[in-house]
Amino acid sequence: MTAPQLGLGEDTAVQGALILIAEDAIEIAEILAAYLARSGMRSVHAADGARALELHLSLKPDLVLLDIQMPQVNGWQVLAQIRQRGHTPVILLTALDQDVDKLMGLRIGADDYVVKPFNPAEVVARVEAVLRRSLPREARDERRILRAPPFVIDFEQHEIVAEIEGVRHTLVLTLTEFKLLAQLARAPRRVFSRAELLATCLPEGDTLERTVDSHVSKLRKKLEDLGIAGIPVSIRGVGYRFRSGS
What we know:
This protein is α/β, with parallel strands linked by helices. Helix content is 42%, strand content 20%. It has helices at residues 26-38, 49-59, 75-85, 99-108, 120-134, 137-144, 175-186, 194-201, 210-225, and strands at 18-22, 42-46, 63-67, 90-94, 112-115, 145-148, 151-154, 159-164, 167-170, 192-193, 233-235, 239-241. α1 (26-38) links the parallel β1 and β2. The longest helix has 16 residues, at 210-225. It starts with 17 loop residues before the first strand and ends in a 5-residue tail after the last strand.
């Protein structure tokens, strides 16, 4: 038996992609982060151009959502430096809607251009499209299979197998349990807050963070029945991590 399928909107080519949101308007950045999370992507925020360049260098994101009018270092300068470093995909987000601005962005090396105000769902769709075009085939294939011992997570088959003492056990999980385990396994050292897991892994109708605890408890019980203890780990007052000491 296989785990239930992921939602039709999810794309195995972009699962777990890290998006750098370079935007000085905090409310816009938070909305984009929430929509990206619902599509299975991770995000990090920079409120000015200098910080955006620091995070781009240290984290090597899969794509940058870049506002043009930012403090310290403007978007044009950030884009130019990113292009000097390599080929990270960049989508410009800006209130500048003149054709000359669009052409300038594309000439410097932007992969796409979105004018404010925008529909965040459209931005996410553009992110997914750019990632599909830019991600090498071998990287896309690698993203379909995630190995986080003792688990092998197959996003294409929507199946999680636990390898215990040389024996493979296919987990029978609900859709939410599949998403929770996969999300934690993507970044095993990171502590995910309940709010993050709620936005990323639970149905849109669920709004209570304590619902996350209930699903995690059921997931942990199924794993313990197979002899897998300590996954996921509760971090008091914060949320959950894949395992302790990862």
